[in-house]
Amino acid sequence: MSHQVFTHSHRVTYAECTVGNHVYYGRYLDFLEEARGEFFRSLGTTFLQWQEQGAIFPVIEVQLKYRGPARYDDVLQIAVWVSELRGVKLAFGYRVTNAEGKTLLEGSTIHACTSMEERPMRIPAELAGKLEGFVVKADER
Fold it and tell me: Could you give the strand order of the β-sheet that contains 89-97, starting from the edge strand earlier in sequence?
């Protein structure tokens, strides 16, 4: 395979869990956001820096498939890759696993690249160049 996958670790906090000691389903979106932010940081430019340059990446679609519960104090591995990089569209794939390697969640987010005025704009060439090595084709997932 010619692509790279970024991986971020997250330890589940007590505040992220329900009374039944499993991560509240909506918190997984926070985990994906955290991993995506660290992915961008690893590429050398944060989301805030892109915003300061006039580009933002609002989420326009989310898909999550829950496969098992994460619990308090679990250390999760959140894998992030680019599933589409074209024009104004940027999509990410995710896989969340626990310490035993069990997949707990698979998901995707689709983003539009827009100006601060929310007008669609092409993904900046500098960013596209940094992301190209992380594009995973559907048949490689």
Answer: 6-11, 75-86, 89-97, 103-112, 59-66
